[in-house]
């Protein structure tokens, strides 16, 4: 029994066990409970600000927003079946960049929904909008744009394989266009810095 206690204690000290347990719960819920939807639909996940989410100002820590968005994207990938399609194609996805704008703090025990939706794609990436929305008055606490880079495939190929034949991307929203432009400028700047070293 002592060995088990030591192993459990060591696991919680050395690994972010809560993260892995939460991911497991999200995946199981998405596969077994969640309604099957198109990957282009809006996916809603529910959340609450707990004591473990707080910063020194007693509202949700900025880093926790991004962590919760990660769980919401995982839910979207599995409940839509997109993860299965990616694995079939031997493809993957990784966050290439993101931006988030905080509009109002989320306080202790505040309930919220996260709305996750693919808004646009190009030859390399899916662009996902995620919104924290107050469950009471529908106020948007925060809004994020995520560049989800598709590895070893293309967004069009993934969506076609998933059943969306010859699908074209919606028109690029203005905020995503500015986000893409910023990323391009940042990449150009960093490349020029590397050449000058």
From TrEMBL:
The chain crosses the membrane at residues 6-28. The keyword Lipid metabolism does not apply. Keywords: Membrane, Transmembrane, Transmembrane helix. Signal peptide: none annotated. InterPro entries: HotDog_dom_sf, THEM6_lcsJ_thioesterase. The keyword Membrane applies. Belongs to the THEM6 family. This is Protein THEM6.
């Amino acid at each position: 029994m002592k060995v088990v206690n030591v192993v459990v204690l060591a696991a919680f000290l050395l690994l972010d066990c809560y993260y892995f347990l939460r991911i497991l719960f999200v995946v199981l819920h998405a596969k077994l409970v969640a309604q099957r939807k198109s990957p282009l639909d809006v996916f809603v996940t529910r959340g609450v600000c707990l004591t473990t989410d707080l910063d020194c100002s007693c509202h949700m820590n900025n880093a926790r927003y991004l962590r919760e968005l990660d769980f919401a994207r995982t839910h979207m990938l599995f409940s839509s079946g997109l993860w299965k399609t990616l694995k079939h194609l031997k493809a993957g996805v990784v966050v290439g960049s993101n931006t988030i704008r905080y509009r109002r703090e989320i306080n202790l025990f505040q309930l919220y929904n996260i709305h996750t939706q693919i808004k646009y794609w190009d030859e390399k990436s899916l662009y996902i909008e995620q919104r924290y929305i107050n469950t009471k008055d529908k106020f948007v606490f925060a809004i994020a744009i995520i560049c989800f880079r598709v590895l070893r495939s293309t967004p069009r190929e993934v969506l076609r394989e998933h059943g969306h034949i010859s699908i074209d991307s919606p028109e690029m929203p203005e905020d995503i266009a500015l986000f893409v432009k910023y990323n391009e400028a940042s990449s150009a700047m960093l490349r020029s810095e590397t050449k000058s070293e």
